[in-house]
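LAB NOTEBOOK - FOLDING QUEUE
OPERATOR: T.R.
BATCH SIZE: 2
PURPOSE: Compare the predicted structure-token outputs for two unrelated chains run back to back under identical settings.
PRIORITY: normal
REVIEWER: second-year student, initials M.K.

ITEM 1
FIELD SEQUENCE / FIELD STRUCTURE:
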Amino acid sequence: MDEYIKVTINDQEITAKKGQTILEIAQHNGIYIPTLCNDERLKTYAACGLCIVEVEGNNKLLRACATEAADGMVIHTESDRIVKQRKINMELVMSDHEGDCRGPCHLNCPAGEDPQRYLKAIQMKDYKWATEIIREHIPLPSSIGRICPHPCEDNCRRGLVDQPLSICALKAYASDRDYESDDPFKLKVKGNSDKTVCVIGAGPAGLACAYYLREKGHQVKILEAQPKAGGFLRYGIPEYRLPKAILQKEVDVLTDAGVTIDYGVKVGKDVTLEELKAQYDAVVVAVGAWADMPLRCPGIDLQGVYGGTAFLAANANGNAPEIGKNVAIVGGGNTAMDCCRSAVRLGAENVYVIYRRTRDEMPAEDDEIEEAIEEGVDFKFLTNPDEILGKDGKVTGVKLQVMELGEPDASGRRKPVPVEGKFEELELDSVIAALGHGLVRGEWDMLQASQKGNIDCGENSFRTSMEGVFACGECTNKGATIAVRAIGQAGKCAAMVDKYLNESDDFYKTPFYSERKIDETDLADEPKKQRVEKHLRPAEERRCDFGEINLGLSEEEAVEEAKRCLECGCHAYFDCKLIKAANRYKIDIERMQGEKHDSFIEHDLKYIERNQGKCILCGICVRTCDEIVGKGVLGLVRRGFKTVIKPEFRDKDTVEFCKNCMKCVDACPTGALRRRLPAEIAKDED
């Protein structure tokens, strides 16, 4: 008959079987104690040192996996002393661990999307699955896939082999195919809470925040001043880049899931923030940045001078101003490109872009610049408006100061310096200033402002100076940004609002990731495959209307492009015990940097890949093969620091046995072992 004892763990009294270890009792009662080397099917190894605990009356830290519990024990699992030692142990382990938790594409996406996973789904032609993966972080996939400046692609390791993947085009392709299917994506609401949230603004940040709050089950209403949803995606991105019918499909996903949107409502005029705060359990301000930065030269008050965002919004509403035949756009960003290319489509015969630096310094995307040039836009580099010229109160031209590049400024770009006495003039009918945009500040004076005059909110809490009021997107701290970054902020903000509604004070924590440093030599054996480029309508055709210019990809192209993915991220990331502990204890591996084991990948067992860089010598694979399987195929080779794990037997029968076993792969806590796909094995045999 079993005997029982009573122990107390973290003030919780527990009845347990006599003979159990502290770790076993904790695990059976849902109390987390980290461990990397323990498996209840194996003999105790006590190697990693992470499962240390304190027992009252004992001055030593004890290893929970190797300590049998005694009746009356009082145990603590998360004291300051324990956490400090666990951090040191984790830092030592991670200092010799070399692997990619996530691919560079994920790490450099401001919204934290996972291209590696959805590219795999595209390879399988499973567009619903791909769309579900994308929407975990980007709830407007067809829109963002068309307009994002893709920092993910800029950091794609495929660029070390040939060219980066067309990640954005693939995102849009998968989402478009899903919308066209008989059973398109529907937002799954996880229960229904009784909490209400008001989101102010239906731009990318507001829509994304509402999407994730509704997904969590909260009742969400969006207030939008404009007649339709989309914010800058609708009123700032021209139709030729983002068809509004596509955007509306994205909005419909929210409303079909129960998000309500009230249009034509302006906070401060139709309702006050205080009234909303009293009516809802939480309020999120996501109003964007719609105030154009003005030109700073004489003549800006002349008729025919417009702000870039105001010009684009008027055009989107069907109320484009009369810009005439000769138009100049001042600025070098993507908004300037949208303005100049829209001016071409509105019938302007001579369209100039005035930019005070050279093309190399332009922040606009290279594709946008090149496409504008193809459409006939004339770029006036190294010039800056000195005066807007006019007659009878109307624009007639611009006097340009010729510039040259001097020393780098705070941004790292060479500072433009006037060339004394050198000017040129252009005859113009209108001037559009696309110099950036910011918050319309006067409407939000009740909230504390940041140094830049935007709404000040916590970087990790998204809370404003008013209790229960949060903020995200372009209206906050750093101001105007790209849509995907605003969406990334909105996702984090939604998580913090959800915690607030559930009376939790947790803040967003930036995850720790292990990242491998590689260069071209590490990928020298990778076969080169040409990138699939987007297909555009001819310039002479597309410049005449606002129809979408991007013709998209064929299914064959999409599948082949997805296959170019190098799958940099770890296959075991979501089950990795190592990264779970690393994130829990906020480790700093820089303190423990030193010599590392050799990092290599081998396929001696044919069906199993062993990544020595990810191995932490926990010994679980060796012990599993020996104690559970009874084969002893794996073993520790060499001694001391040089110790590694290698297969001891590699004959044909052993390889076939391992093919059907895989217990070592299932037991590995770090992803150092992986099942190889048939296609990979076939590639070796070729």
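ITEM 2
FIELD SEQUENCE / FIELD STRUCTURE:
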Amino acid sequence: MRPRLRVSQNGLIGFAGLLAGVVCSMVASYAAQSLTPFAVTYISMEHVYLGGGRGAGLAIGDTLSVKQGDSLVPVLEIVSVSTHSASCKNLRPTGRVKVGDSVFIVLRAVDSTVAARPLSSDLRTRRDTDLRHVPTGAARRASVHPTGSFSLLHNQWWDRGSSARDFAQSTGDLHLRIPRLWGTGLTAVLRANLRRDFGNASMRSGGQKQWTDRLYEMSIVYDRPSTGISFYAGRVMVPRLATIGYFDGVAIEQGLSETFRVGIFGGMEPRWHYLDSRPQLQKYGGYFALTTGNFSGTHFDLMMAAAGEFHASIVSREALHVSGHVGSGNRWDISHAIELDLNSGWRKQNAQTALSLSSLYIDGRYRLTNWLTTGVSYDNRKNYWTYETRTIVDSLFDTHVREGIRTRADLNLPKGFTFRGSLGYRSQRGEPDQSTSYTAGIDKRGFLGRRGSIGFQLSSFSGSTLNGRDLSLRVGQGLGASSTFDVAVGQYSYRTTGIGSVQLNQWIECNARTGLVRTAFLSLNYRYSTGEDIIGNRLQVGCTYSF
């Protein structure tokens, strides 16, 4: 029997049609970005440096990409800029960008002011932009000003079901960088979060308020290419050591050559506001990073770290972290991430082995033709003991071993059509059956205008206790130089093993993003849901300002 919806489906379909009509009727002008290349001149522990700056049209917040086939893959975001050079954060810490690569602007932080700072094609060569000589003293003085971003996000849920569990959450994030402290190569970094939760019970009957805050990072960074040495001090998470997590301490890195760097680190695990009862652990270790080649040809990078965690003199975890990437132009590439636990003391007694594999992830991509790209990924993860969990019996850990493989294919068709599909298989020890899933989707670029798009996606999964399907249709349109709008409708259905009826839920969603002034952006998301499980309205409003 088809489940009975609690609201009129005709009203929902009519609303979807109205919004789709609004989107389809929008007409926007579009001017293609000039793909002016900027050379990558140096890569340090934290930043990627470019041979081009404010004089060539770059600005803080701009996003740059490398070419991958016929598409552009975002890899860098500018965080500091002077007249003739710029430093960027790497959006893909595992690699992709090498010294000598060319990157291109794909997203302006200030789309409305492109005319005020046109791109320049008169760029210097890689030899002329050696960061051991750039930026100049005048450029350094020009770049002494705080940079960063501040964002606000409010999420509101109005529950129209019988439980009346309304919920609201407001979040503020601050990322602040103050370069050239006291005229030196030191930079102060602050990253903090403040969150207010209101709900967990009906707001209509009083509700509960709860404030939480977290200081992610407060550090002093030295990152000057001319010296070959970099260091972090304070509460930090080193980009090369993301799997190590945050720690209160110091990390020092020395470049031994243009391609080889070594580093050491040590400190204490932070005692977060809501984890004060946890035992505090010491973290320390060392690593090396090797990078060769460039993206346009054969490229290779490898990072290996040995890290230990201890509670006083008692070991919590000792492990090797290995990650890397190898590829040949845009033809093929393979990336991997591995964690090996080195067991000693009580850990060896629990694991019954001196070496155990706790995590393995491998992802490969191969471009068969200009219109067909295939890929496969494999991951194998299992729980590992720490100081806090050392008394848990091994059988509980054995039941949480997860292993999966997924294949995918992307097909570029004529007339702006793109097809994508994937098939996955996952098993978990202790479950009676394995689970499978697949996705299939088709997109059309240039739908009702050069910046318009339409896409359809179907996904399905089948497991030991649950089977489900998700359908969605999305129509989008670019507006002006820095605004986008899209509307989507979808249906999610599932059935629990042993229960005959199908649970059906439907939703409609609108998304908008626009530039306000210079480097400020406003985003809006509204979703209306109705069905067997969820009935209500969700509104998300966000604002981000970069400076």
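REVIEWER COMMENT (ITEM 2): The radius of gyration is 26 Å.
FOLLOW-UP: none requested
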